[in-house]
Each structure stands twice: as structure tokens, then as C-alpha cells.
Amino acid sequence: MENSEHRKDLKENEISYLIRGAIFKVYNTLGPGLLESVYVAALVHELKKENLDVKTEVPVPVIYDNQKLDLGFRLDILVNDLVVIEVKSIEQLTEVHHKIVLTYLKIANKKLALLVNFNSENIEKSIFRKVNNL
Hints:
The protein has helices spanning about 10-30, 35-50, 95-110, and strands spanning about 55-65, 65-80, 85-90, 110-115, 125-130. By secondary structure, it is an alpha+beta fold. It starts with 11 loop residues before the first helix and ends with a strand. Strands 1-2-3-4-5 form a 5-stranded mixed β-sheet.
């Protein structure tokens, strides 16, 4: 398939399965301890090979009291305009990292996110599924 023919027919859970596969491939190839930007670039590469529509640093405006605030945030990766991936490479995720991803989902009006910490001895235990009305 050409890049112009992205797999748009996939639902969140199907996309999530492909993302998990790409995360494992990146982790098994690179291992832990690199910068987040390296993992983002490698993950984007793997997801594009799956013919998914992948965007990085996607700006999401914050609307408060019917006002658009100039303090919007950016999603690390957005796949097929449906699934958010928040990439970390830190010693340990804390509860606030999980809460932030849930807030991102609500503000961006998305249903599914994966929070992944590549700086881990066991990547399988470092991928967290976050849902918003899915």
C-alpha cells in the first residue's frame, strides 16, 4: 500500500494492538536508557511501516470558559486521529503521569491512549492503557 492509503478502517483496539507490537520491536532493538525523542522517532517509523497515519507533537488547544487558552499542550504521537501515545523514558512513572494522560484524552476528545515508559527492565509492565468512554 502507498502512504496515501492509510488504514483508516481500524478501530482503537486494533490500532492499540499494532502500537503494542511496534513498542516491543523498538524496545527489543534499542533497549532502555535513551532519550524520549529517540523512542518517538523509532516508534513513528515502525507505525508508518504498518501504514498508519502518524502525527507527532500534535497541538491541542485548551478551552476554558469558552475561551481558547494559548497554553495548549502537544500530544507526543497521534495514530489515525484516534489513539494517543505518550512516550516517557524516565526512572519511574508516578501517579501524576497517569492522570495527565487521562486529562489529555478528555481535552483532546479521544477515547484511547497508551502511556509507555521505555526506561524499563520489562517493557510489558511499562505499557499502560488509558481510556475515556471507550
